[in-house]
Amino acid sequence: EFPSGEEIKRICHTIELARTEVNRFRTDLARELLSGIHSDVERIEGTVAWVLYSLALAETFAASDDPAAKGFFEDALGRMNQVPDVPPDLKSHIHEDYGKYLFRLGYRSKARLQFEAAKKVAAEQGRLEDSARMTLRLINIELELDKDPQLTSFKNMKNSALERGETHQAQLAAWHQYWGSIEAKRHAMKFGRDENVASKEYFAALFRSIGK
After folding, report:
1. Is 40 exposed, middle or buried (CB count within 10 Å of its CB: 0-12, 13-18, 19+)?
2. Neighbour count for residue 65 (Cβ, 10 Å)
3. Cβ neighbours of residue 64 closer than 8 Å, sequence gap 6 or more
4. What is the distance between the alpha carbons of residues 63 and 65, in angstroms, rounded to a whole number?
5. Which of 90, 74, 85, 81 is nearest to 47 (CA)?
6. How many CA atoms lie within 13 A of 126 on its CB side?
7. pLDDT above 90 (res 194)
8. Would you say 198 and 157 are in contact if contact means Cβ atoms under 8 Å apart?
9. What is the pLDDT of residues 132-175, one digit of tens each?
């Protein structure tokens, strides 16, 4: 028998409680909460809550560096693709969280695929800040894969932005402006690389100029 509306609300509430516990670094409690509703979730197959349950499991295991997280992320993606009415923000959230997990494990190319998928969903919805955040993640990956010395500049930009509370859109604008300024130098150089990096102070000044 399919659960009632009230039962589904209870399931969703428990899932959100578990995700809150993950954010508080109490993963054991999160696992306990999710384990307690496992049989109930199996009865709501094909619903958004069914998808969200897998994501919550993935987040819980990822937070404790349990390798089982990968399987749960794949399960969440599989369920997401089976349910037609999954909200776009949940789709992008699944892709982004899985990408972050893969990135942390060192799987840069696989993480890139997830961030590209998250960006596509965000862009289609006109969510500019989310799209900019994904673009920044992709830039970071490209710089790492290329072993580009400008990765240090990128990290300095991110640190400056964090201190100043800049939006991801402002960060992206600053990076594009900086990157454009060094492209001409790169083309003129024999090896196409500029070993000089920009400091946090440089980006703080750039953020101020963009904000004017």
Report:
1. middle
2. 11
3. 27
4. 6
5. 85
6. 0
7. no
8. yes
9. 999 999 999 999 999 999 999 999 999 999 999 999 999 999 99
Place of tokens 């409690």: 29
Q: What rounded mean pLDDT belongs to the chain?
A: 92
Those residues with Cβ within 8 angstroms of residue 128's Cβ, 6 or more apart along the chain or in another chain: 169
**Maximum Cα interatomic distance, the chain, rounded to a whole number of Å:** 71
Closest CA to 63 of 115, 20, 113, 11: 20
Smallest CA-to-CA distance from 123 within 154, 167, 73, 169 is with 169
What's the pTM value of the predicted model, to 2 decimals? 0.88
Q: Look-up: residue for tokens 């600053």? A: 174
Contact between 121 and 95 under an 8 Å Cβ cutoff? The reply is yes
Extract long-range pairs of 58-67: CB within 8 Å, 24+ residues apart. 58/97, 58/98, 58/101, 59/19, 59/22, 59/97, 60/18, 60/22, 60/27, 60/30, 60/31, 60/34, 61/27, 62/97, 62/101, 63/22, 63/25, 63/27, 63/30, 64/27
Q: Using CA atoms, how far apart are residues 34 and 60, in angstroms rounded to an integer?
A: 9
**What are the tokens at 91?**
């789709």
Give yes or no for a contact between 18 and 38, defined as CB atoms under 8 angstroms apart.
Answer: no
Residue 75's closest CA among 91, 51, 41, 42?
51
Q: Structure tokens of 6?
A: 């009230």
Q: How far apart are CA 156 and CA 160, in angstroms?
A: 6
